Amino acid sequence: GVPLVFRGVPVDPKDPANKPLLNPQSLQAFNFLVELGDSVELNPEIFKEFGVTKVPMLIIRKHQQKSPGSSDSCGNQDADAAQNAALVLGDVTLGYMLDTLTDRQDEIGKEAQRLRQKLGERP
Q1: Which residues lie below 8 Å from residue 4, measured CB to CB, with a gap of 6+?
Q2: For residues 97 and 80, is the Cβ–Cβ distance under 8 A?
Q3: Average pLDDT for residues 50-76, to the nearest whole number?
């Protein structure tokens, strides 16, 4: 239930064609993950929105209801996106990342608990 989000596909400097980022040949690099049943997204905007420069990182956002006059989801960034989310950085298991958030007494903590239960006993 947690998608793997990638900023994009690296360009191979040795490839004379220097194919654009989102082409069928580049996207084939993710086929093995999809075949394993993983949800894969290419979304460079998430990296910008949260200032992600190191990975792996787990991000759990608070669900926000739009109020009249609020910005839409068509590219307008929320200035305090990081305040409405929890970010856990580290080369550790998903279970460990979720465990670091399950004690929170808010929506993020509840979502971390739900995902941790779904993950089960796996680390």
Answers
A1: 33, 38, 39, 40, 41
A2: no
A3: 69
CA distances from 103 to 27, 95, 106 (A): 38, 14, 9
Task: Report the DSSP pairing between strands 85-89 and 57-61.
Answer: antiparallel
Which residues does 61 contact at the CB level (< 8 Å), separation at least 6?
81, 84, 85, 108
Structure tokens at 99: 């465990």
Write the DSSP string, 14-80: T-TT---SS-HHHHGGGHHHHHTT--EEE-HHHHHHHT--SSSEEEEEPP----TT---SSSPPPTT
34: Cα separation from own chain's centroid:
16
Question: Model's pTM, two decimal places?
Answer: 0.71
